Amino acid sequence: MAAGTRPRRRRAGLSTHRSSFSWGRHPALLAFLLLAGFAVSGVSGAVAYFLPAVTTALHVTGQKTTGHGGKATHPGATVTPPPPGQPFTVLLLGSDNDTKFSPSSVLTQTMILVRVDPATHHAVMLSIPRDLWVPLSTGGSAKIDAAYSYGGAAAAIQTVENNFNVTVNYWAWIGLGGLVGLVNQLGGVDLLAQMPILDVQYPSDLTGNNPYANQRIAILPGPQRLGGVNALTYVRSRHGDILEDIARGQKQQQLLVDIKDTAKLMNLADIPRIASSLAGEVRTNLSLSQISSVTALAHDFSNGDVTQIVMLGSDYRSQNINGQAALVPIWPAINSLIAQNFPPG
Amino acid sequence: MSSRQFLASLATVALMALFGYGVWAVLGTLQSRANHVVDPVQSQALLALPGTIYLAQGGSLYSLQGLHFTRLNTPPGNWVQVAPATGGDLLAVDKGNGYSDLYLLSPGGQVIRTLLQESSPKYFDNHFVYYPRVSPNGQSLFYAWNWIDPYANYNVDFEILSGPLSSPGSSTTVWSLSNLYYQGGDVEPLPLANGSLIYVKYATDTSTGAVYSQLALVTSPGAQPQYLTTPAQNCSEPALNPQGTEIAMICSNNQLQTSTLDLASWNGSSLGTLQELSSGPMAAMPTWAPNGQSLIFMNVPERALPFQLYWVPKASSAKPGAPQEVTQNLSLTATSAPVWYP
Q1: How far is CA A270 from CA A254, A295, A323, B33, in A?
Q2: The pairing of beta strand B295-299 with beta strand A170-175
Q3: What burial class does residue A25 get, using C-beta atoms within 10 Å of its C-beta: 0-12 exposed, 13-18 middle, 19+ buried?
Q4: Where does chain B have alpha helices with state H?
Q5: Interface test with A, best of B102, B206, B257 (most A CBs within 10 A)
Q6: Min distance A270 CA to chain B CA atoms (Å)
């Protein structure tokens, strides 16, 4: 074939009218359409892969901080994102959301106040005992774990802000199944069990029809790898511990750090699998972009950057109030703790 | 459109769909493999240690000879701990729902006899038994057993019991003090040739919230213990070398996320200065070689990865070797000390 000539393909018997369309005469268009087709198909594949994560994320993140039923019953409890780079405070809430309680009125057996200072690379975790007897933002006084059941995240935040004189910027809530699923999807966590955990009346409410059933559990002490159910058992059991709920706070903080370390091993492709375990079991007012920023920040924190605090006997006194075993705050001691670890700004 | 063009279009569309599926599938393969775990029998050790080592993973027991693992032929169960017995046999704990039982197994995993059956149709008559150890003279069995306070159902800490190996349940001796009180209790008995016992006592300082463990030495059942380590060292999981002169142990120095492998000389009544053999990050359950020259222990290659077996050459020398990884891609049960037979 002579140089410069273009081969022309024709098939015998086919019409070659000028008006008929031939792909061979539009190679650029053909290439573009093929590329576009493959691109759309590839993007569709990626969308299908990440769809569960996106769906879950849209459901659980960016929640409005309102009372139950979406009512803004506590307008004072509007949470404000801090300026970029400034310290911020997150209230972590956890509930025994088994069928003993209506899903809309669960208590928060776990309340951990976390202050993160990106500039100094330091975080402080303070566990608030669930039995602390305080004035609630919804009116009256009760154990602090009731605030969420009366008025959702807004009431829990307002109650914490009122009593501890702190500003809460973000909140996140997780249920029992959420913690179990999260740890399982991470492949388990390495945990240094501080003591043998023995409980002969541990709730057997994750499976079965009777939320009041008990079971006998044993977690051995020392370094070990725990799956979701055992990790939950470690942080939830209290009967066999002389510090009861206070010890739970310590263990919950320990597990949070272990989860943070394990999450460092995950990558983008793990997100759909992890997100699938959180559907319906996690809520937060953090947006996706904020979660991304916080996650990146957490990756840079070493465990030495995290201070873990629980309230001890010098911070409260035990008292029976209205037939309930409560902890009455000793505010000078608690205020000192707060001033030292949760400075304003 | 000709039939050929139609077929070409169809093939193109199919290729596009296949490409989309491929993207979806490839994304799935990009998930983190950091926690990838295999069955030991599908794995091979990185280095061959002499003798036979017994380990637990995922409710099964395995032996390691040279580079190869074999699953023991145990009855179905949740086998969570293995320990040395006499004559090359094994002690093994099978954890059930709310209890655990103790068996004497042959080296191949067959049940020779049941030593302690702790399951019961009566809810509060169920118990957990763990950490079995045979006394050096081979006559007695020591173990941790959770008692139930008749006056407070929540008070169920571990205590150390012993009984004749031939029939452990026929008569039991309580070695722990009776002041167990919601602090975890006593575990990990280490019976000594002179009749004394080292065990690990857990306790809580309620004023600071600190929980710690200490190695305790008692010369007779129920005697006041002499503590061999301090609360600040927070040590546990002791292993005495065959010569009876050194004890390896795990210490956390009150850290919540790291533990180290430490070694101290032992003169029968007190420990020498602790020497760190491994900084962890999650060292656990040391076991001496039959000749007492080296030891093995559990550890993680890095924080948050599953536990593997490690070997410390020349552990008892003045200059111990650096720990070497023996297994990979396993998730060994770190609450069960390996058994190492010649």
Answers
A1: 23, 14, 48, 10
A2: unpaired
A3: exposed
A4: 3-29
A5: B257
A6: 5
With the C-alpha atoms ordered B261, B265, B266, B269, is the resulting torsion angle positive or negative?
negative
CA distance A130 to A246: 9
Both tokens assigned to A205: 């409410």
The closest CB to that of A37, out of B16, B182, B298, belongs to B16
ipTM higher than the 0.90 cut: yes
Check: CB of residue A287 under 8 Å from CB of residue A61: yes
- In whole angstroms, what is the distance from residue A201 CA to residue B123 CA? 10
CA distance A216 to B98: 4
Cross-chain Cβ contact B307/A312 below 8 Å: no
CA distance A114 to A170: 10
Find the closest chain A residue to B81 by CA distance: A220
Which of helix, strand or coil describes residue A283? strand
Determine the Cα–Cα distance for residues A194 and A189; give it in Å rounded to an integer.
15
Which parts of chain A sit beneath pLDDT 70?
A: 1-19, 66-80, 345
Question: Which structure tokens are listed for B279?
Answer: 């900084």
Pairing of strands A306-310, A316-321: unpaired
Instruction: Give per-residue burial for B7-39: e unless 16+ CB within 10 Å, then b.
Output: eeeeeeeeebeebbeebbeebeeebbebbebee
CA pseudo-torsion sign B207, B211, B213, B218: positive
Q: What is the average per-residue pLDDT within B297-317?
A: 95
Whole-angstrom distance, CA of residue A271 vs CA of residue A186 = 10
Q: Are the Cβ atoms of B204 and A195 closer than 8 angstroms?
A: yes
B151 vs A307, more confident: A307
CATH architecture of structural domain A59-341: 3-Layer(aba) Sandwich (3.40)
* Chain A residues in contact with B126 (beta carbon < 8 A): 216
Q: Which residues contact A162 (CB under 8 A, 6 or more apart)?
A: A135, A137
Domain boundaries, chain B: 1-31, 72-227
In CATH, the architecture of B72-227 is 7 Propeller (2.130)
Of residues A184, A180, A193, A309, the one with CA closest to residue A246: A309
Name, in order, each residue with C-beta under 8 angstroms of A85's C-beta and a sequence gap of 6 or more. Answer: A118, A119
Residue count (chain A): 345
Provide the token pair at A285. 């007012």
Q: Among the residues of chain A, which ranges form H helices?
A: 27-60, 146-164, 176-185, 228-236, 244-263, 271-276, 288-300, 331-341
As a whole-number percent, the residues of chain A with pLDDT over 90 amount to: 53
Q: How far is CA B318 from CA A25, B42, B229, B271, B315, in A?
A: 83, 37, 22, 16, 8
Please give the DSSP secondary-structure letter assigned to residue B97.
S
Query: Do residues A131 and A143 lie in contact, with contact meaning Cβ atoms separated by under 8 Å?
Result: yes
Distance (Å, rounded) from C-alpha A145 to C-alpha A239?
18
| Lowest mean pLDDT, pick from A289-303, B170-184, B238-252 | A289-303
* Domain range summary for chain A, segments of one domain joined by +: 59-341
